[in-house]
Design goal:
Structural class: alpha/beta
Shape: elongated
Largest sheet: 4 strands, parallel
Number of strands: 4
Helix content: 25-40%
Strand content: 5-15%
Number of helices: 11
Length: 236
């Protein structure tokens, strides 16, 4: 089986895409040694975009909530690919089978270059990190992650929470901006393209909201020639 232990980066949720790919020194494989890792790092720009000097591919394992979601077609990852020059080949599993599939992946030794949103417990981080399966990120954070380093300095609890008993850091935490109030308060979202297509602005009061939703229902905001839009929906 392939061994990629020096290239494997574990994340609960990615904080910075540029940090993610720079830190792991990723690519399409290679022997598990520091020499090859340094060669991969040499293929990347230390600052700015694109991250990779030439287009490269990384493999990643991730948990997802919706079975129908094809991550290779998500606009988020497509835009990051354009910005970074890095293509990610995703292997995704649903949350209800994540633990089983993740453990099989780890036990099999055929590692992806990145675990993303995989709910790795600290016991696994310590176990596989001490074995050299997961890449120790401390020095790479110092070299390539000034923004995240600043967060750890400003909020020591962040560094404390991701640091293992031996002082190693193997993954990044989930961090939410406290100013991003929509995340906390359940603020509704509207598609700007739909607003533009029906010639309206985002509502500022209840009466305007009713008019916008009525327009969404009656004026074909997705321009498919059918009156089939649902003006209000909830994922709950």
């Amino acid at each position: 089986m392939r061994s990629r232990k020096w290239f494997t980066l574990t994340l609960s949720v990615v904080l910075s895409f540029s940090l993610l790919v720079t830190a792991c020194g990723g690519g399409g494989g290679g022997a598990a040694n520091e020499g090859n890792r340094d060669e991969r790092v040499a293929l990347m720009n230390k600052e700015g975009m694109p991250i990779a000097k030439d287009k490269m591919t990384m493999t990643a394992f991730a948990g997802k909530f919706f079975a129908s979601a094809d991550w290779s077609k998500l606009m988020l990852w497509q835009e990051y690919e354009k910005m970074s020059n890095i293509h990610i080949e995703w292997e995704t599993v649903q949350i209800d089978s994540l633990k089983e599939k993740r453990n099989i992946k780890l036990a099999g030794g055929d590692y992806p270059e990145m675990f993303f949103a995989s709910a790795l417990p600290k016991t696994d981080l310590i176990k596989y990190g001490s074995q050299g399966t997961f890449l120790r990120l401390n020095d790479l954070i110092d070299q390539y992650a000034p923004n995240f380093k600043k967060i750890m300095e400003q909020y020591p609890i962040v560094k404390k929470g991701i640091t293992m008993p031996d002082g190693s850091i193997y993954g990044f935490p989930t961090i939410f901006d406290p100013e991003f109030k929509s995340l906390f308060y359940g603020t509704p979202w509207m598609k700007q393209e739909w607003l533009d297509n029906v010639g309206m602005k985002a509502p500022t009061n209840l009466d305007e909201l009713v008019q916008v939703l009525k327009a969404f229902k009656e004026k074909d905001p997705n321009k498919n020639g059918k009156q089939d839009e649902i003006p209000w929906a909830s994922a709950l």
